Amino acid sequence: xxxxxxxxxxxxxxxxxxxxxxxxxxxxxxxxxxxxxxxxxxxxxxxxxxxxxxxxxxxxxxxxxxxxxxxxxxxxxxxxxxxxxxxxxxxxxxxxxxxxxxxxxxxxxxxxxxxxxxxxxxxxxxxxxxxxxxxxxxxxxxxxxxxxxxxxxxxxxxxxxxxxxxxxxxxxxxxxxxxxxxxxxxxxxxxxxxxxxxxxxxxxxxxxxxxxxxxxxxxxxxxxxxxxxxxxxxxxxxxxxxxxxxxxxxxxxxxxxxxxxxxxxxxxxxxxxxxxxxxxxxxxxxxxxxxxxxxxxxxxxxxxxxxxxxxxxxxxx
Amino acid sequence: xxxxxxxxxxxxxxxxxxxxxxxxxxxxxxxxxxxxxxxxxxxxxxxxxxxxxxxxxxxxxxxxxxxxxxxxxxxxxxxxxxxxxxxxxxxxxxxxxxxxxxxxxxxxxxxxxxxxxxxxxxxxxxxxxxxxxxxxxxxxxxxxxxxxxxxxxxxxxxxxxxxxxxxxxxxxxxxxxxxxxxxxxxxxxxxxxxxxxxxxxxxxxxxxxxxxxxxxxxxxxxxxxxxxxxxxxxxxxxxxxxxxxxxxxxxxxxxxxxxxxxxxxxxxxxxxxxxxxxxxxxxxxxxxxxxxxxxxxxxxxxxxxxxxxxxxxxxxxxxxxxxxxxxxxxxxxxxxxxxxxxxxxxxxxxxxxxxxxxxxxxxxxxxxxxxxxxxxxxxxxxxxxxxxxxxxxxxxxxxxxxxxx
Lengths: 317, 405
Prior knowledge:
heterodimer, A: alpha/beta, eight-stranded mixed beta sheet, two-stranded antiparallel sheet, 13 strands, 36% helix, 16% strand, B: alpha/beta, Spore Coat Polysaccharide Biosynthesis Protein SpsA, Chain A, 15 strands, 37% helix, 13% strand, N-acetylgalactosaminide beta-1,3-galactosyltransferase (chain B)
């Protein structure tokens, strides 16, 4: 009896110490999820006005040629209304917008990936995009439930060389892994995509069907594969350090700012040059088109160093 | 038997120990992250209130229950010389119809957003409130008091602020107004004209009347005639339906119901929220179809790029509209609609944005306008000299702008 009792007590003591050690080591933190407020060691800031002014004419011309975006929009027939909304709204501002679907839909045109697994879909879509990029050097991956302002994306990456590896968006941390959140859009430079397509061939480093005991989300799988090729996630920010990629809708971000009792609700909300918002209804996206590309107060002008013309044959922008 | 028993006990003990500590740690971690975020609520609120008062005193001069604008909002890096010129020349007094129960729910958000762009703001209520501040009109509250409040509010405005503004806007506490765009509409007129603008409705009157919720604005002459009309009993309190009664009085005293549409005939004052105008298909039986004076457009053509107002705007939409109008933009985007500068104002050469590097998907070759390179206004004073002779032609379209007949 006594020996059992003492074994029990020893057991408790050892169990407790074991748990403490694990949590202190950090890789197992009870109750803590990947916290988005973590200091991002990799971040990309938009260029300042001065930086752009210092560029010569010919440099500007070259940059504007280079900053063209191929949009990879991952759709499926169950979100038909979002699909058509993306096509009718922000998709028009991509230099090329290609829709990749899990299965073909008669109503709308898309590349049929014939695939249900999220990670496999993403791999196929990215490979297709790489093979069909033409002379486009930047890739933006999103679902149609995300709304993107492509001009602001171009502004962020304007001075970045696509022959360097870039993997940008809203950077999150899960344990040791830093990855870009899918929900708020993923940006890849040509070089990053090239390396990715290469590592796809390596079943060890980047398996097509996840081998792990638990299935990792496709955004994390992407980050792991890219990490093997030496490409790391970077957080996209404006010149003041505000995040440009949002996984929430503009309405809920405004509501959050109101709840925080901010003095200036709008200042405390979102960047003026925000790139993405997510979770908005199709109608709200049409309102955002109006708000971004049309509604403005007369008499206020920003003499931006680069001019983007409106797309042809469109009336909501 | 005994050895097995004690090993078993050890295992149980191990599990118990792990679980207990896990739960314990979870609590501790949880509390730690939580405590860094939540402060005692009460303290937070008073601190926030103090900051708000401080901010307020920088932006407004509170005098005689009105707020005089000291510091209308400017953006970093923007060229607002045109907006500033209009601010000086087209002075607007905004009065907001509200009530004591709506000060914190609605009027406060008006105060925090669009009213900051007016020259003078007065919040009209049934009750005096020196802190907000609101003017007490000596009426009761309720729908049947609306015209009484309107009559008294306009009288108050002329009497107390007649010299401080040229135009007098009435808005509800759930109306959002883009005041800079209102100045653009009004700049082609003078305050001596007997005219008023808003969203024009057609029934019950000869020349139509302006929707109350979408807001309407009277010239100084129109306001004087309104007040005189009551003195001479030409106008009386005919009905509590404020906007219709207003329209009937305006007609009697010879004030013209103006056309506030932009140069491509799109409406600027709106009786509903943007989502409804842009995306709803109103059923044909809806009153709206028979009320609108001008033909209704559904879809994107419903609303001018230089829209002036929206109605039924709740608190969060107020901030969202402020964000859309004054903050969120697409870098470098050359707007499709290029509004002409109002008559008599220096032609907004920069508006044309033909300089700089044009980028278009369809034409990979870079379009170079007549200008080689747009210099930032802060870098050089030679703004106007940079314009080549071709620019002189641009002056004509603005002067020839007569399509608002």
